[in-house]
């Protein structure tokens, strides 16, 4: 009986951890998006990001509003992606994996004066992401370059 209670408690703890809200900082920082935790499951264009986590921001070609709208459409075209928050200068989206239903948080901040879009993608749970977050942002970059809205 005691073993059964222990197993039940362990299952509940595991399910809670897998379904937990993001433990990482979301939202906007003064200069763009937040940096990353020490785990290798995050990338960010934040100036605070170390070499292992850093990615370059998107450099806008043409009107910033066109680049921003194109980014939103490109995000929504990806399987498993939903936009949770959308303002004139900030996007928070989530990407849910097919098999295990893991959720990653993706944030963007538009800086029209500097003609930049800052980006961050981070796993909510786990330690390793096998490069999924970096691949996601770089695939978005490639698509936006092809569409001519970033350089």
Description:
- Mean pLDDT is 85; it is low at 8-25.
- The protein has helices at residues 2-18, 64-76, 132-146, and strands at residues 42-44, 58-59, 81-86, 90-96, 103-111, 116-123.
- It contains 3 helices and 6 strands.
- The protein has 151 residues and is of the alpha+beta class.
- It is globular and about 65 Å long.
- Strands 1, 2, 3, 4, 5 and 6 form a 6-stranded antiparallel beta sheet that branches.
- It has one domain: TATA-Binding Protein.
Notable characteristics:
single chain; alpha+beta; TATA-Binding Protein
What is the overall number of helices? 3
- The end-to-end span amounts to 63 Å
- Summarize model confidence as the mean pLDDT: 85
Q: Could you state the CATH homologous superfamily?
A: Kinase associated domain 1, KA1
* Total beta strands: 6
Secondary-structure class: alpha+beta
Count structural domains: 1
Look up the CATH topology: TATA-Binding Protein
Short summary:
With 151 residues, this protein is α+β, with helices and mostly antiparallel strands.
Describe the protein's topology.
Layout: H1 2-18, E1 42-44, E2 58-59, H2 64-76, E3 81-86, E4 90-96, E5 103-111, E6 116-123, H3 132-146
Antiparallel strand pairs: 1-6, 2-6, 3-4, 4-5, 5-6
């Amino acid at each position: 009986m005691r073993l059964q209670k222990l197993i039940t408690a362990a299952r509940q703890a595991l399910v809670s951890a897998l379904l937990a809200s993001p433990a990482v900082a979301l939202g906007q920082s003064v200069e763009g998006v937040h940096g990353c935790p020490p785990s290798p499951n995050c990338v960010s264009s934040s100036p605070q990001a170390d070499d292992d986590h850093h990615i370059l921001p998107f450099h806008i070609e043409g009107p910033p509003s066109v680049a921003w709208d194109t980014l939103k459409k490109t995000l929504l075209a990806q399987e498993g992606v939903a936009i949770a928050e959308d303002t004139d200068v900030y996007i928070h989206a989530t990407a849910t994996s097919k098999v295990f239903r893991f959720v990653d948080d993706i944030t963007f901040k538009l800086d029209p004066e500097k003609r930049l879009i800052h980006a961050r993608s981070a796993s909510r749970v786990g330690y390793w992401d096998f490069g999924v977050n970096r691949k996601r942002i770089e695939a978005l970059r490639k698509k936006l370059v092809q569409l001519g809205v970033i350089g």
